[in-house]
Amino acid sequence: MDYNSNRVKLLLPEYGRNVQMMVDFAMKIEDRDERNKAAKTIISIMGNMYPHLRDVSDFRHKLWDHLAIMTDFEFDIDSPYELPTKEKLAEKPDVLPYNNHRIKFRHYGKIIESMIKKAIEIDDQKEQSALISMIANHMKKSYTNWNKDGVTDEKIFKDITALSGGKLTIPENLRLRETHDKDFQSKKKTFHKNEPRKFTKKK
């Protein structure tokens, strides 16, 4: 019996051994024109395995890259794209810096802190008050999602003062929306007792 475990390991197993055998055969073709034709045929076969992507330009570029990998970068052909190199593929990506930013009130999120910093920079009193009102209402909504028991307006105002380092003044007579308003409730579809529910099959 000829078991796969006894065969040469496939460089890209997702294309299967038959495609790899075609690639190995094409590499032995001495005539360059015939070798180019064979390469294009193999690319077409590889693309047929993913018909919804085969006509996408970036995907075709990827197919030619995969063909180069399957030949261990030794396929001498006229590729329509610049082929990768072993060294390029072996390069490690740059290390992404870890975000060490500490959020003072995690239930409000980092965006709220950024919005408060922006509000501090606004000179126009009317515009600043409008933004504070918007921020406060959003904070109340976020707090309610975190604590279902609700929250007072005074608590939100106190947190805004803390987050702004005392640089923001809460507008006089500012009243926030009540937690039972529709803006604070998750939008869930309700069904009548005798109404059949419609379900969609997961693909």
From TrEMBL:
- This chain belongs to the protein called DUF4290 domain-containing protein
Pfam families hit by this protein? DUF4290 (PF14123)
User: InterPro entries, alphabetically?
Assistant: DUF4290
Q: Which domain of life is it from?
A: Bacteria
Read off the lineage from the record: Bacteria, Pseudomonadati, Bacteroidota, Bacteroidia, Marinilabiliales
Disordered: annotated span: 179-203
